[in-house]
Amino acid sequence: MNMNEKKKVLFVMGMEQSPESIIEKMSSLEPNNILVLQSYGPSIAPFSDLMRDIILAVYRENVEEIFVSVPTANRKNARETLKKIYDNKELQEKIKTLDYLFKNSMPEHPKGSIREWLEGNESSSSANSIQNNANVIRNHPLMPSNVKVTELIIETKNLAKVMHRDGSLASNY
């Protein structure tokens, strides 16, 4: 894959990933033309704040390609953080109240409980998650059709693999 040095690219990745290590592996990119959006949790919903930020970045910064990245490393730290929330005695009554509201008063809420909402797509694999995220971006009605969305898999050995839409691997990364 040959990259135009003046082309702006956007990396969408998790907080546990190092943008520097990924970007240095993609040496053909001009550092001044790289934007990074980081988020806790691997899931992108069509009308989430993260998706809004992606769309705004595309239009404001004239982004031509988006790299969607999800690490393949385990999510032990996320589970530990969630355990702290669930074990907090002060929050338990609030969580019960919110669960009741989500179930009975806010049926439009996409998750059935606070636990499901906080966990996000914890149960889905990294490969499924990255593909789902890329498809959400690609198929969003406000995303310009000329913006290329590329799946970037970050393996635990800090090697980057770039997946094309057809599932083939790009060799230059």
Verbal overview:
With 173 residues, the chain is α/β, with parallel strands linked by helices. The chain has helices at residues 19-25, 49-61, 76-87, 89-104, 114-119, 126-138, and strands spanning 8-14, 34-39, 63-71, 148-154, 160-163, 169-170. It has a 6-stranded mixed beta sheet with strand order 2-1-3-4-5-6, sandwiched between helices. The chain is elongated, with a radius of gyration of 18 Å.
Distance between the termini: 9 Å
Oligomer: single chain
Q: What kind of sheet is the major sheet?
A: 6 strands, mixed
Number of DSSP helical runs: 6
Helix share bin:
25-40%
Could you report the average pLDDT, rounded to the nearest whole number?
Answer: 77
Order of helices and strands: EHEHEHHHHEEE
Low-confidence stretches: 1-5
- Placed side by side, the strands forming the largest sheet appear as 2-1-3-4-5-6
Shape descriptor reads elongated
Rg, alpha carbons: 18 Å
Structural class: alpha/beta
Number of strand segments: 6
Strand content: 15-25%
Short structural description:
With 173 residues, the chain is an alpha/beta fold. It is built from 6 helices and 6 strands; from the N terminus they run E-H-E-H-E-H-H-H-H-E-E-E.
